[in-house]
Write a structure and sequence with these properties.
The complex is a heterodimer of chains A (265) and B (303). By secondary structure, chain A is an all-alpha fold. Chain A is 72% helix and 0% strand. The longest helix of chain A is centred in the first third of the chain and has 31 residues. Chain B has a six-stranded mixed sheet with strand order 5-6-7-3-8-9, with helices on both faces. Chain B has a four-stranded antiparallel sheet with strand order 11-12-10-13, with helices on one face. The radius of gyration of chain B is 24 Å and the shape is elongated. Classes of the chains: A mainly alpha (265), B alpha/beta (303).
Chain lengths: 265, 303
């Protein structure tokens, strides 16, 4: 039998092919954060009275958080709900391919998409808004672990969320509600987050998005911008802790709720 | 010899609805069994149990000597499953899809050869969503066969195919038997069952209504039409009341006797003609087809 790794890699290839050829998902999921960045960066061009801080720079960091959430969470959630409803999972269950190979394929898709998403957003930031990229390795290392934890947490939560979706045609709409609400609560569109009521910040602190956005700001914003954070520090330890907790929660939830077939079957 | 599929007293329920109500059947290795029945007869539900997609609510199923659910992982490399619909990537091409499924197996068939066999070569670069229903069905069949399975489950394999594609598919399924592959297929097409299957199981309302080879099933039902040529104007209403048959003089001296006729009743019919002093110049019988058997057996459902 072919190894799970090989099958997973081939499935990843087909998944990417599917995503790229389906123009709707490509435009509305993949390029949407870049469009928002272009709009926000232009509209709010001089709203920060802070040295070295432009709206474009803030929104590049924010949109990386937003793009990671939509790409990992929505792509995973909608993708699995669709696979379950249209029989892809069932057909797979009737072959030697394992569940691990299936998720490996999805993971490859999400990894490729989120990485490409980051590249596109940084390209817009640098080329359109003259945003300086961090030059020291330490910041890129910070970026790497925050990005990795973010993608993992969002993907696992996406798998779990797919179980809540009853109809794949409405999956996108259903899953976007918590996503968009959390973006606002978490200060992704509103920076500094301290403009939000205290209870909102407290509520957002339970969820991963606030910490993702804060983490990416710590990478791409100048050190002095830390004064605009709610806690007055970047809180790297807490970011790692909360994202890791969500990874574990996502894993447990997705293992507990995963089904090969839809309820109707 | 171990049977490829051994189903015993299987019951499948969906809530209050009983889809399969105590069905037993077996598929000998290297043979083709057709499950014949109307929509809703329970064919697909029974297949789902054999494929391990769900467990039976009662009874048991052994596939290649294994339990379809408990031994799922060791069983799957040896099975080929063709579902009725769904589960392929709309944006991928026929060739890409078949190559993907081929990659699941250690020793798959040659993809190009299989595309050729099913007349799909010219669609190798066509995206799945642009294929016609019949072409999608053929690809689905190819997906089931590409891993060189020992046993194949085909759920309505020729649904949506035109006559030519159906013929190609039949030839391919027939050639599986020559390779020693066992096949369990469902169909509501009588000619499909009659021309392909070694054994036919007719299902109706979740139970087995009849079982046998196509020849046995039609032979058991006997002759259903006897045509006799003799003098015109014989008093045949008398014959109709003596035997439980319908008699009509369709043309001058052309008598048609319809009903379930066995050897004894045939003798009585001819004896009646002899007693009437008729000069019988021709006798012709028509055997019942599988279709007649099927309609007679499943009539209860619609009555």
């Amino acid at each position: 039998m072919t190894s799970t790794l090989t099958i997973g890699r081939r499935r990843g290839g087909i998944e990417i092919l599917q995503f790229v050829r389906d123009k709707t998902s490509l435009i509305f999921t993949f390029f949407f954060p870049a469009l928002l960045l272009l709009l926000f960066g232009t509209i709010f061009s001089d709203s920060y009275d802070h040295p070295g801080l432009s709206a474009a720079r803030v929104f590049t960091a924010s949109m990386i958080a937003y793009g990671t959430v939509t790409t990992a969470f929505i792509t995973m959630g909608v993708g699995i709900a669709t696979d379950r409803e249209d029989g892809t999972l069932k057909r797979l269950r009737g072959t030697p391919a394992t569940a691990t190979a299936y998720f490996l394929g999805k993971l490859i898709l999400v990894a490729a998409l989120t990485a490409a998403e980051v590249v596109v957003l940084l390209a817009v930031g640098v080329l359109v808004f003259d945003m300086p990229l961090p030059s020291d390795a330490g910041r890129w290392l910070t970026f790497a672990w925050i990005f990795l934890l973010s993608v993992t947490a969002c993907s696992l939560l996406g798998i779990a969320a797919s179980a809540l979706v009853r109809n794949s045609r409405t999956a996108g709409a259903v899953l976007n509600v918590p996503v968009v609400a959390l973006q606002f609560l978490s200060g992704v569109f509103i920076h500094p987050i301290t403009q939000l009521p205290g209870w909102m910040i407290t509520l957002a602190s339970f969820f991963p998005v606030k910490w993702m956005a804060q983490g990416f700001r710590s990478v791409f914003l100048p050190d002095s911008a830390v004064s605009m954070e709610a806690a007055g520090t970047w809180e790297h330890g807490r970011i790692a802790l909360i994202l890791a907790v969500w990874c574990v929660a996502g894993l447990v939830l997705s293992l507990a709720t995963f089904r090969w077939t839809s309820r109707r079957d | 010899m171990l049977e490829a599929v051994e189903v015993q007293d299987v019951v499948v329920k969906y809530g209050e609805v009983t889809a399969v109500n105590g069905v037993s059947l077996s598929v000998p290795r290297g043979s083709i069994l057709a499950l014949l029945g109307n929509n809703g007869a329970g064919k697909t539900s029974l297949l789902q149990v054999c494929e391990g997609f769900r467990g039976p609510d009662a009874g048991s199923a052994r596939v290649l000597g294994l339990d379809p659910i408990a031994d799922h992982d060791s069983l799957m490399p040896r099975l080929g499953i063709m579902l009725q619909s769904g589960g392929v990537y709309p944006w991928a091409t026929a060739g890409e899809i078949l190559r993907l499924f081929a990659s699941y197996s250690a020793n798959p068939l040659d993809v190009d050869m299989l595309l050729d066999r099913l007349g799909l070569r010219k669609f190798a670069k066509t995206r799945f969503r642009r294929l016609s229903g019949g072409e999608q069905q053929r690809l689905s069949l190819a997906v089931a066969l590409v891993g060189r399975p020992e046993l194949v489950f085909l759920d309505e394999p020729t649904a949506g195919m035109d006559v030519g594609a159906r013929q190609t598919t039949w030839e391919l399924v027939d050639s599986l038997r020559a390779d020693g592959v066992s096949v369990l297929l469902t169909t509501h097409l009588l000619d499909e069952a009659e021309s392909l299957a070694d054994h036919v199981v007719i299902m109706d309302n979740g139970v087995v209504a009849a079982t046998g080879t196509p020849a046995e099933l039609t032979a058991a039902a006997g002759i259903d039409l006897l045509q006799v040529r003799a003098e015109p104007g014989l008093p045949v209403t008398d014959l109709a009341t003596r035997l439980d048959v319908r008699v009509a003089e369709e043309g001058p001296g052309e008598y048609a006797i319809a009903g379930a006729l066995d050897t004894e009743s045939l003798a009585e019919v001819l004896a009646w003609f002899a007693r009437a002093g008729a000069q019988v110049t021709a006798v012709n019988t028509r055997r019942r087809t599988l279709e007649d058997v099927y309609l007679a057996l499943t009539a209860g459902a619609t009555r």
